[in-house]
Design brief:
- It contains two helices and five strands; from the N terminus they run H-E-H-E-E-E-E.
- It is an alpha+beta fold and 118 residues long.
- The strands form two sheets. Strands 1-4-5 form a three-stranded mixed β-sheet.
Length: 118
């Protein structure tokens, strides 16, 4: 977040966060917050907006969503990934394997796998 301004105290963190929201709402991207920054902010990623042209009550000719961005809060005990409210999360994986090649077994090559430690 320091790319968007100073982060030396809570007031500066809030100002830098506001600047980041303004910039990233137009460009998209990922905003990383440190544990200290995360504690200083009460973040809810509600910054993505929808649009409708023209506005109601006229017949809609165009609609869609504005650019969203993802916030990654790296906390002391966990990491939170806060997705854009409308775009959500899309995971893709390309498998371009030769005709004589394949994954070893469908249960060992998950695209998403839950990991836990004792």
């Amino acid at each position: 977040m320091s790319d968007f301004g100073p982060v030396d105290n809570q007031k500066l963190i809030q100002a830098s966060f506001s600047n980041a929201v303004q910039v990233l709402s137009g460009t998209g991207g990922i905003l990383f917050l440190s544990p200290a920054q995360s504690r200083s902010l009460n973040v809810e990623n509600t910054y993505q907006r929808s649009f409708r042209i023209p506005a109601p009550l006229e017949s809609c000719k165009q609609w869609g969503t504005g650019t969203g961005f993802t916030i990654v809060e790296v906390g002391d005990k966990n990491t939170t990934i806060d997705l854009p409210q409308m775009a959500g999360l899309q995971l893709t994986r390309t498998l371009r394997m030769g005709a004589d090649d394949s994954l070893p077994h469908w249960t060992t090559d998950h695209m998403v796998k839950s990991m836990s430690s004792p």
